[in-house]
Amino acid sequence: MGLNAEIWKPLQGKILFCRNQAYYNYFLNPLMSEYIFKERNAGLMKILLTNTGPWGTGSGTTADGVLKELRAQGISAKAFFPDSKFQSTDMEQYYGNPETYHIAAFPAVYGNTYLYTFPLIITDPNPRNYQQAWTFRDMTYREINAYFNYMERELKALVNNFKPDLVECQHIWALDFLCHKMGLPFICVAHHSDQEGFKRDERMRNMALNSAQKASYIFAVSDYVREEVIDLYRLPPGKVITIENGYDQEVFKPGREDRQSLMEKIDKKIPKDMPVITFCGKISKTKGVDILLEANKVVQEKRKVLILIFGSGSLEEFRKGRDPDKYSLENVVVMGHRPQKELASFHRLAQMSLLPSRWEGFGIAALEAMGCGIPVVASGVGGLKKIAAGRIVPPEDSRGLAEAILEILELPQSNYQELCQQALSSALAYSWKSRVDQRLPYYEEAIKGRAL
Q1: Collapsing DSSP states into helix, strand and coil, what is residue 83?
Q2: Quick one: CA dihedral 442, 444, 445, 446, positive or negative?
Q3: Whose C-alpha in 144, 244, 376, 442 is 20 to 30 A from the C-alpha of 323?
């Protein structure tokens, strides 16, 4: 295929003869280089992205972001994951696009074994699963065997049709093992929840260890996760590469919102001048929701604010067994799992976003809020220590969280705007394009069989 005239015209007269092809490509006009790279890869490299669960989680967001950017760069890519077919407003994006998303449907029956839903790695709630869904640890040996046989059958059907050159597996866990069994070159992405599963589930440990050691490379979503992976799976440091996550910069961006129309989506009368604060994450101890509610008790005594909780899980379930005198639900509204565009609208309306996690592999939710031009108050754990712009507080410190919230609320407008700009500038460095550009050399090495 020849050069498109629109691409060629601005380059005429700017290309010099050079015998060294690598030097030539490196110093070539960036527009020309991008064109050549797309031409070289279009239709040649096929990448399959797998995940242990569907969209709506950090790993699901990663798989989606990478897939879309690969396609934008002219590289053929598809995704494979299980799902329980729960109704949601964003369901059509996936089920209505079977050429891109191959979904292993649950409930499923393999042999005589009934699998009521897909299993989770850890107990944290999943937006596409039951409130008390089983984990791999909860399954019997018969159920685990049925799960692997069913997923292998579904994966083989896709592989035989798509014929991928390489598989990128989200999590060092189950599907990586199947890729190795099927003789497919694969790269694992470590998100930290898989490392937590490795520590807790002895039956899956050898399988996960085998997956890590047989992978061409491991992409770790933060330096923290990289060190954890090297230690847990006994891997050579050169095999584990830190490639941090990105976020959707077309969705999560600054802008003006109509407060009245957004407030109508909340079943609660809110004063016009009440500050809005967002939290996006699973309603779980892992994400520090208990710490948030304890901090809210302190905050509401000094300043009335509206806290909107976006994410899966039940606050009522979460409150069971907790001392009601230690926390407050005043002005707290659970919004549940919402489409990204709606979440972005509420971020743009908010003064700040909170991430009081006990542990966090990376923290895409921080980037999404910052990308909308608001600061975050986050625990100094995992990847958050590096990426969060706003205030960093110690984990499990509800008093420190409350003080940081109040401090931002009381900033002079000029100082607050400066903090917002800092948050936006920090987030913009994390595009999915830059994350995919980092991946491509490792994809090529893995496909050529020269990986460690």
Answers
A1: strand
A2: positive
A3: 376
> How do the residues of the chain divide into helix, strand and coil, expressed in percent and rounded to 5?
45, 15, 40
Domains in the chain: ranges and CATH: 42-246+431-448 (3.40.50.2000), 259-427 (3.40.50.2000)
Ordered alpha helix ranges (H), 357-412: 364-371, 384-387, 398-409
* Cα distance between the two ends of the chain: 35
Three-state SS at 289: helix
Residue with tokens 């490299």: 45
pTM score: 0.87
Q: What is the mean pLDDT of each run of 10 residues along the chain (452 residues)?
A: 33 32 38 45 80 95 97 97 93 95 98 97 93 95 98 98 98 96 97 96 95 97 97 97 98 93 82 93 93 97 96 81 86 93 97 96 97 98 95 97 98 97 97 98 92 64
**The two structure tokens encoding residue 126:** 């999943």
**DSSP for 199-240?**
HH-HHHHHHHHHHHHHSS-EEESSHHHHHHHHHHHT--GGGE
Cβ neighbourhood burial of 148 (10 Å; 0-12, 13-18, 19+):
middle
* Residue whose entry in the numeric block shows the structure tokens 């509401």: 300
- Tokens at residue 68, please? 């879309």
Tally the C-alpha atoms within 13 A of residue 228's C-alpha that lie toward its C-beta.
25
Describe the strand order of the beta sheet including 240-242 as a list of residue ranges: 101-105, 76-83, 46-50, 166-170, 186-190, 218-220, 240-242
Query: CA torsion angle for 131, 132, 133, 135 (degrees, to 10)?
Result: 130
